[in-house]
Amino acid sequence: MNPQQQPPLPPPATSGSGSGSGSGSxxxxxxxxxDWNTFGQYLRNHRPPLSLSRCSGAHVLEFLRYLDQxxxxxxxxxxxxxxxxxxxxxxxxxxxxxxxxxxxxxxxxLRAAFEEHGGKPEANPFGARAVRLYLREVRDSQSKARGx
Length: 148
Hints:
Elements lengths: L23 H22 L11 H11 L5 E2 L21 E2 L2 H17 L12 H17 L3
Antiparallel strand pairs: 1-2
Helix pairs in contact: 1-3, 2-4, 3-4
């Protein structure tokens, strides 16, 4: 399935969102609920629609790649003259992506929400090995792209 064929979804909540009032726990719970609802909408919009019980780590990866279109982090490609520079001196055409930290936090919230909604820990697609490897690859590639 081509993620570009999906209707747009609201971007996931980021760790910095919220009014700052209230307890950190309620802000986390609100983010987790919004993220869970966004993922549920993604499953419903999937062609063909996908039930949570049939969702796999591969579907989670598809979702994470889909979210890149909402990203705000510039990730330089190997061919970019600014590749490896933490503070590039000018603009470039490299793509915007979701930041590794945002994806890592999102997966943590979705992993918890899956189990809170009755999913068995051993069947949790957000904890799949492929998802962990993908997050590690994103972290490493973003780090290299910025010269860290």
